[in-house]
Write a structure and sequence with these properties.
The structure holds two protein chains of two kinds. Chain A folds into two domains: 89 residues; 118 residues. Helices cover 85% and strands 0% of the residues of chain A. Chain A is built from eight helices and no strands. In chain A, helix 1 runs antiparallel to helix 3. Chain B has a single domain, classed as P-loop containing nucleotide triphosphate hydrolases (Rossmann fold), CATH 3.40.50. An eight-stranded mixed beta sheet of chain B has the order 4-5-3-2-6-7-1-8, sandwiched between helices. In chain B, helix 1 crosses helix 2. The model of chain B has no long low-confidence stretch (mean pLDDT 86). The chains are: A mainly alpha, B alpha/beta. The interface between A and B is medium-sized, with 23 and 28 residues.
Chain lengths: 208, 185
């Protein structure tokens, strides 16, 4: 399995590299006939190099599982097409970035919500996840409010609301960070680990 | 056959296993202590004791009386109620305080096992019956399936205790498929 994975990665990489090198160095007079001119060949070559890098990354991440690599490439292509479509539909770069960041925010919110519901009622993990969820909600509200100010060209007095929201978000983050510290204190066993190490060492010395 | 002999016969052949031990209610405490004594004193390995049944203070006393070195055991107590119902840790034990709280029990076990030095370690889970009092049988089956999978990943000696009762029979039969060794003690 390991050998197959290495072979696949090296072969794919070498193939793409070869194609890209040929296209980057392509000149129409080399073959006598011109399907595409030198510039577009260079662009295709660069594109192939980029594709090679992305494919190799996905191959590495999925340890050579072909199905997963194809899924990842299709997913990445879908995202790129989506971003391209959004950029043509939304004229302003600010609004585009706002829309994209909101999408990621909502996605994160859904994942954390699902994680929270999966943990046992009353557990420390559920509590921590709930706290993290409130941070995300605060940041999302702030982001929505900030974008609304820009979109509707609201006057400067509306900025005070923004300050309140970002303060709430930071307070939430501080509370969550504290809870995380407590989680580390409670569920970290480094002290016990040292104690056991010492006890085992003492035992070994006794038996010698 | 002597209990220790029986444990030796069943458990000494491998250093990684998931064992389901069904124990007679009248011998329950003595059997648990004997298993821990076998692992700590005879096999000389450190480990984690998860108690959902008897409070840590009681278990520790019983182990000390049996001359078991409790310094090499990390205790996780999900039975002693803590003021405020939260998780609390002392030098010797992590109190989860609620056998329903499977997420925290899982995380505590994961962290405790990872913290124990060396390759040879055990996890003793006491018991399935208490878990059944607080959780649905399907949840318990899922949890034990998860736990046995984790025990294999951790490459440890895992022992799950259950009382030998007619009402548990069906669940025990279902859980047998996740375990390598079954013992009736």
């Amino acid at each position: 399995m390991e050998k197959e994975f290495v072979k696949k990665t090296v072969l794919t990489g070498a193939l793409f590299l070869l194609l890209a090198m040929v296209l980057v160095n392509y000149k129409p007079e080399m073959t006598g006939f011109s399907i595409f001119d030198g510039t577009s060949a260079k662009q295709i070559g660069m594109g192939l190099l980029f594709l090679a890098a992305v494919t190799l990354l996905f191959i590495m991440l999925n340890k050579g599982k072909t199905k997963e690599v194809i899924k990842n490439i299709l997913g990445a292509a879908a995202i790129l097409i989506g971003v391209y479509a959004a950029s043509t539909l939304i004229p302003s770069a600010d609004m585009l970035i706002a829309a994209l960041s909101l999408t990621f925010g909502i996605m994160a919110l859904i994942w954390v919500w699902r994680a929270k519901n999966a943990f046992s009622m009353g557990s420390q993990l559920r509590d921590f996840t709930g706290s993290f969820l409130s941070c995300l909600v605060a940041v999302l509200i702030f982001s929505l409010y900030d974008n609304a100010i820009a979109i509707f060209s609201l006057d400067s007095s509306w900025a005070y609301g923004k300050y309140v929201l970002i303060t709430i978000a930071y307070i939430n983050f501080a509370v969550t960070a504290y809870k995380m510290r407590k989680l580390g204190d409670v569920f970290g066993f480094s002290e016990q680990s040292l104690k056991i190490k010492k006890a085992m060492k003492a035992r070994m010395q006794r038996t010698r | 056959m002597d209990l220790k002999e029986e444990l030796k016969k069943k458990l000494s052949s491998s250093s990684e296993y998931v064992a389901l031990a069904t124990v007679e209610p009248k011998n329950y405490q003595a059997t648990n202590i004997e298993i821990i004594s076998y692992l700590v004193s005879d096999e000389k390995i450190p480990g984690v004791y998860v108690t959902l049944n008897k409070p840590f203070s009681y278990v520790e006393r019983a182990l000390i009386n049996r001359k078991v070195d409790t310094d090499v055991i990390v205790f996780i107590d999900a039975v002693t109620k803590i003021a405020g119902g939260s998780v609390e840790k002392t030098k010797k034990c992590l109190y989860i305080g609620n056998p329903e709280n499977l997420s925290d029990i899982s995380m505590a076990m994961d962290q405790a096992i990872s913290a124990i030095p060396g390759d040879q370690k055990f996890l003793f889970f006491d018991s399935l019956d208490t878990l059944l009092l607080y959780n649905k049988p399907q949840t318990v089956a899922k949890f034990i399936h998860f736990l046995s999978g984790k025990m294999r990943i951790w490459k440890i000696r895992g022992i799950i205790i259950s009382l030998s009762k007619a009402s548990n029979r069906e669940l025990i039969d279902d859980l047998m498929q996740f375990c390598d060794i079954s013992m009736e003690l």
